[in-house]
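Residues determine shape. Next comes a sample protein:
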Amino acid sequence: MTYAESVRYLYSLGNEIHTAKLGLERIAPLLKALGNPERASRCVHVAGTNGKGSTSAMIESGLRSAGLRTGLYTSPHLSEPTERIRIAGEPITPDQFALAFNTVHETAERMLRSGELDLPLPYFENLTAMAFVVFRDAGVDWTVLEVGMGGRLDATNVVQPDLCVITPIDLDHESFLGDTIAKIAAEKAGILKPGVPAVFAHQNPGAAAILRERAMGPYTFADEWPVEDLELDARGSRFRIRNLQIVCPLPGEHQVENARTAAIALHQLGVSPYGIALTRWPGRLERVSEHPEIILDGAHNAAGTRALVGYIQRFYAGRNIWLIYGVMRDKSLTETVAALFPLVSHIVLTMPANSRAMPPEDIPATGAVITHSVSEALEHLLGVGASDVVFITGSLFVVGEARALLVQ
């Protein structure tokens, strides 16, 4: 299949969260048939609820800056699924994507015919197998793998990592992972392996207790490396942990914890953390225009909303703020409505081109402008003053569509 055909096929499998079939019983035999590409390089495995994508990107940047050839696997994507699989910091090409898809798809189809697989692979398992094939064929030295959901039964949990990292744990995907922090922490801890060292970000006490209980190798809590001399501004942060000076280019106070965790992980691997300063992570408090300031942020859960609210209160209090907002139907709006909406002067509600999008009329916002596409919502920016600031947020699908239109 061509790139376009392979993407259409993957999308036809349905939403990767709601059609997820957690478990390793399909991907493990498939990878064996492919020659176990997941064993071809050294690996850092990253789980958590919040910040695992940012932390993965910072670890990869540090490894790459040390002269190592890297692979990075993250989810979701903003515009194109090629963004999920990166080599040396760059998304793979459509041709590379199609080649990997065909390799995985043809092997899976043969195994289905022979009875070696009982069901077709869902979206995320296809992408995960493809990533391993791409990284093997590209000859990467290190792969950094972000868990898709949970950890214990996630498709990425076929690896034997050199280091495990768990970022802050919070409530999310409760219907899949459990309805308490302790249950969710137990699922995240499922990536831990005997004898493999681990780095844990700052956790609430309940999650920390579970991680200590489930650890099977030496572990470090980021709290053991206190942050000192913190300088925080709207563009990022600088701070010191022990004798290491860290520069984080990703905005937001929450990124300090992610950068600290990434720096400790790199230190564990014997690599300088200074490459964190070169990290790029689109769509997360990403400034795509200066006059007016337009900032994209995929604050798609309660913790993300809290981080965005804190950022606005710290750096944009008193400014004339515009908000373009759209969300999926399965998201709770309680915290957004209560905490985020009162901070802004103008609200433009919208919806991405996705069957799961919540109709903007169903979002409770008094006096909001209603639009039915991201492009229509962006037309309202013509009324924004040069000194105003615009935040485009909610679903990552909204951020991705806006970014494709705004970033040329």
User: Anything to note?
Assistant: Residues 286-406 form a domain with the Protein-Tyrosine Phosphatase; Chain A fold (CATH 3.90.190.20). Residues 49 and 169 are 5 Å apart (CA to CA). The chain has a mean pLDDT of 94.
